[in-house]
Amino acid sequence: MTVSRFRTIIYMAAAIVSLAGLADATYLTVQALTGETLGCGGSPDCFRVLGSSYARVAGIPVAGFGVLAYFSAFSFATFAAFGYARARLFLIPTIGVMFLATLWLLYVQAFLLHAYCRYCLFSAAITFLLAGLVIALPSGRDASVP
Amino acid sequence: MKRYLPFVIVAAVALATLGSGAMLYRAKRPQLLAISEAKMLSGKRDAESMHIRGNPDAPVTLEEYGDFQCPPCGMLAAFLGQLEKEYDSRLRVVFRHFPLSMHEHAREAALAAEAAGLQGRFWEMHDMLYREQEAWSKAPNVRELFESYAGMIGLNLDQFRKDMDGEKARERVDSDHQRGQSLGIQVTPTLFINDRPLDPKDKNPEGIRAEINAALEGKSQA
């Protein structure tokens, strides 16, 4: 297998993994918008996390930022798989920021709220997987769409 | 063609995300009914069984469907205490039971509150149950704890024990729960302000205050 082909496979895998994160973040955003996370009866495990003050930034659900982040990661990975060189440049910092945000959110759950939400943990796993895929990318340049 | 394919894929995913998000939002959005004429708080039969705190003739009524084991209800109870002081005679608070089956001791707690209510101490037990929520929620001997709370608020313990197992307390809890179900309630706390359901996204201090102020304005203009 050529290096270029291996890269394409990694980008495609990153796009598919981002889709799973996108679905998860969309679900959490809808939950936040319907107010389900502000009470009991919806997701019993999650209200302590999603109903906390850490779950919103300037009134916007953090999951909403997750939707944007996963959609960006998906878009950049898709374009990169099709050989768009600039998309590759954007993909790595996007996943880097997502990775740092995930570390912060895990810290909040573990040490500030002492509660975990399974949907948030799933999102963290997805981001770690994306970071792993990006790290697995072979270095160097390859052919690209002009 | 290959050059444009990523654009098509990304656009399709964007549309699918927006579409599925919108559909999920519509499906999950609670469909609460306004409290109908037949169930209006002014109904005599209803007034006998409900628990009111504050001025009975207040222009604004905040009706809560709560579960004593639900932490957000506990947080709300503390905030409602502040609101009662803030709005004084302009606000009355009504509490209705809606114990969720997912909470192991919620129904028993509701019965304890009703048993206290039969001795005229509903709100004292209500406050105690929310204040001590974390302690009894995980306790195996919940009944003993409720009895100790009853003792602390000065109830006749024999009567309290009898009332907790009695028909009257059970009927009141069931009646509130059925009423809540008929209104489409699924989560707690669910709030109504002057018989109109509060949008779940407004279930925060600013949202509740804004709705109360709007209701007060509406009353003063009427």
Summary, kept brief:
The complex is a heterodimer of chains A (146) and B (222). With 146 residues, chain A is mostly helical.
Report on this structure.
The complex is a heterodimer of chains A (146) and B (222). Chain A has 146 residues and is an all-alpha fold. Chain A has one domain: VKOR domain (de novo design (two linked rop proteins)), CATH 1.20.1440. Chain A is built from five helices and two strands; from the N terminus they run H-H-E-E-H-H-H. Chain A has a two-stranded antiparallel sheet with strand order 1-2. In chain A, helix 1 packs antiparallel against helix 5, helix 3 (62-81) runs antiparallel to helix 4 (85-113) and helix 4 packs antiparallel against helix 5. Chain A is elongated, with a radius of gyration of 17 Å. The mean pLDDT of chain A is 88. Chain B has helices at residues 5-28, 44-49, 71-87, 106-117, 122-131, 133-137, 142-152, 157-164, 167-182, 205-221, and strands spanning 51-54, 60-66, 91-97, 190-193, 196-197. The model of chain B is unreliable at 41-45 (pLDDT under 50). In chain B, a hairpin with a 2-residue loop joins strand 4 and strand 5. Chain B is an alpha+beta fold. In chain B, helix 4 runs antiparallel to helix 5 (122-131), helix 4 packs parallel to helix 7 (142-152) and helix 4 crosses helix 9 (167-182). Chain B has one domain (43-221): Glutaredoxin. Chain B is globular, with a radius of gyration of 21 Å.
